[in-house]
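Forum > Structural Biology > Help requests

Title: Can anyone predict the 3D structure of Plasmid addiction system poison protein?

Hi all, first post here. I have the sequence for Plasmid addiction system poison protein but no way to get a structure on my laptop. I'd be grateful if someone could post the structure tokens.
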Amino acid sequence: MKYQCIFTKNAEKEFSKIDSYQQKKIDTWIIHNLKNCIVPRQYGKSLSGQLQRYWSYRVGNYRIICEIDDENKRIYIMTIGHRSDIYDKMIREEDILYETEKIEDEY
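Reply #1:
Sure, ran it for you. Structure tokens for Plasmid addiction system poison protein below:
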């Protein structure tokens, strides 16, 4: 069964801050690699420590941070950001992100 990609409100907000050229690259990558995929972990890297429930996908200098729900076959895109600060930002905001309502905005 294929996985469904769902953007959280935070991911949509962070994505909108990225320049349009990078947005297109990220959008294309998500469409080709995550949307309706069967094995969502094949292109990603599992995170460790406080972020161990998340997966990171590399798109140039940007990272897509996701939570994978195998039971419901959903990939929640939690945030998107530049590699230089995305992980520190995730650690600072992890409690907020985890509590954030996951919206049903299918990608």
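The mean pLDDT is 89. DSSP finds three helices and six strands in the chain.
Shout if anything looks off.
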